[in-house]
Design a protein that fits this description.
The protein is mainly beta and 506 residues long. The protein folds into two domains: 1-32 and 282-506, no CATH class; 47-233. 9% of the residues lie in helices and 29% in strands. It is built from eight helices and 37 strands. A 13-stranded parallel sheet has the order 1-2-4-6-9-12-15-18-21-24-27-30-33, covered by helices on one side. It has a 13-stranded parallel sheet with strand order 3-5-7-10-13-16-19-22-25-28-31-34-37, with no helix packed on it. It is globular, with a radius of gyration of 23 Å. Keywords: Repeat, Signal. It comes from Streptomyces pimonensis. Residues 1-24 form the signal peptide. This is Right-handed parallel beta-helix repeat-containing protein. Residues 158-312 form the Carbohydrate-binding/sugar hydrolysis domain.
Length: 506
């Protein structure tokens, strides 16, 4: 793995923004076991019973008539900023041109009456676009739009400050919505979209202050892009790119084709908590070439059955897991609410494997093997500095590569019943490993240097966890598999204070 993220190049943020001492850190983790407070049942059952919008037009609102094609876009053009629009019950249509989208003005509000639907009829590419700030969309169903690959239907241009609440965004091509800075997506149904439920990507910039709360995110990637473009790294319930500060909480992310949540390329300062992530075909969560996160109190169950089994059936020995950290770690020099990646108080039940920490020895700035080819780490402003001879010595030897380091995994409950997962082998693994570094030939990371570092030197630590089931542990490289006693023993010394009940289930 580690070959994802082939999106458009995302420039690194200016060093003045990120090379600061971490503030608001959670401090050194408590060594004592922590009781789990993860949700026991599904949360955010939004799609089946969305909250109804206002049955009457609010005072001062402009009423939009579904019997008049293009009425919403036309009235938006002729009304001033900060106008409220109330869409009557019924199916609203845009003009029959693929670029006939609504272009809001600053502060506009769009409120749907009960039964209000904006339908692109597989003709219009986008529903709402433009760069106006602080737009609100509530109680509206948006469906049937045909955004191109890697583009989105709602907030197509990633404008800042948008609020999407109690909306249903479904059965569109591309992404249901894009994201800008300070965007809030709450209590909405992002369902059955062709590529992503949401693509948090802003061309030429970074996104800050993103909130994704109380949503149901399900059935996305209906167009199965990873099969159409193998290795594209271009799918997921939600994909995040270059986001600084995201709160992802209380969502139900389930039954997506591919990963549930995927943060890819220079994300930082995520809090992922109180979610239920279940029955996604791929990993529940991928955190890739990114920094500093708290992942806590989530219920993660029955994920990765499709993709995990697919790779196992091909004879692939890599430990594909339901929580996958790829070249991601804690970095005190990048400002965040923590200076590590903390994974704690989660319940992981009957997934295809558990947590894999991976670092590709060949993935670093200015390397031809780096699939995020236009990017560098947040510690190096100019990737061209990452070349011979400077890259072979400090500080660039460390700063030119994304490192899986300072990961603290504690107080979690890992349950595996192989009869439920229906597997014999390769679904029972925890892992911390790297590849043998051999490419390119001028790389300073040759041989086992990276494998030794991620396994023994980069402060990656499991402790005070509870294991139920026949777990095995992979260290250093895919060929080295340990039992629980070896995992706890010298030289690895993992899972101090943890317990293992090896029988299936329970």
């Amino acid at each position: 793995m580690g070959s994802k993220g082939r999106r458009r190049a995302l420039p690194a943020a200016p060093l003045a923004l990120v090379l600061l001492a971490a503030t608001g850190c959670e401090g050194t983790p408590d060594a004592r076991p922590e009781p789990s407070a993860a949700p026991s049942g599904s949360v955010a059952r939004v799609c089946a019973a969305p909250a109804a919008g206002p049955a009457k037009a609010p005072a001062g609102a402009v009423t939009v008539d579904p019997a008049v094609p293009g009425d919403l876009a036309a009235k938006t053009r002729t009304s001033p900023p900060h106008t409220t629009f109330w869409l009557r019950p019924g199916t609203h249509r845009l003009d029959p041109d693929r670029y006939a989208q609504v272009v809001p003005k600053e502060g506009n509000r769009y409120l749907g009456a009960p039964g209000a639907v904006l339908d692109g009829r597989r003709t219009n590419q986008y529903a709402f676009g433009g760069t106006a700030r602080d737009v609100t969309i509530r109680h509206l169903t948006v469906q049937g739009f045909v955004a191109p690959h890697d583009e989105g239907v709602v907030n197509h241009d990633s404008a800042d400050g948008w609020t999407i609440e109690h909306a249903t965004i479904q059965r569109n091509s591309g992404a249901g919505l894009m994201a800008g800075a300070r965007q809030k997506v709450r209590a909405s149904c992002l369902r059955d979209n062709g590529q992503y439920g949401m693509n948090a990507y802003k061309a030429g910039g970074r996104i800050s202050g993103l909130v994704v709360e109380g949503n149901e995110i399900t059935g996305n990637n209906t167009d199965d892009w990873e099969r159409r473009r193998p290795g594209c790294g271009c799918t997921g319930g939600v994909k995040f790119w270059a986001v600084d500060g995201a709160d992802v909480r209380g969502n139900w992310v389930h039954d997506n084709r591919g990963a549930g949540l995927w943060a890819d390329t220079n994300n930082n300062d995520f809090r992922i908590e109180g979610n239920v992530l279940e029955e996604n075909d791929g990993a529940a969560l991928i955190y890739e070439t990114s920094y500093n996160a708290v992942i806590r109190k989530n219920t993660i169950r029955r994920n990765n059955w499709v993709e995990g089994r697919r790779y196992a059936d091909r004879g692939d020995s890599f430990p594909y897991a339901t929580v996958y950290l790829s070249e991601s770690g804690g970095e005190p020099r990048v400002r965040a609410r923590t200076d590590r990646i903390e994974i704690h108080r989660n319940v992981l039940e009957d997934n295809w494997s558990g947590i894999t920490l991976w670092e590709n020895a060949d993935r670093f700035c200015n390397s031809p093997a780096n699939t995020s080819s236009g990017d560098c780490t947040l510690l190096v402003e100019d990737k061209d500095r990452c070349a011979q001879p400077a890259i072979a010595t400090a500080p660039l030897y460390a700063d030119c590569r994304w490192k899986t380091q300072r990961v603290d995994i504690r107080g979690n409950r890992f349950v595996l019943d192989k009869s439920v997962v229906d597997c014999a082998v390769k679904c029972d693994r925890m892992a911390v490993l790297a590849n043998y570094g051999t490419y390119p030939d001028w790389s300073p990371y040759q041989g086992e240097r990276v494998a030794e570092a991620i396994t023994l030197e980069q402060h990656n630590r499991w402790h005070d966890n509870v294991y139920v089931g026949p777990w095995t542990f992979v260290v250093h490289d895919p060929s080295r598999t340990l039992d629980f006693g070896q995992w706890q023993g010298t030289p690895y010394r993992q899972d101090a204070g943890s317990t293992l009940r090896a029988g299936d289930g329970g």
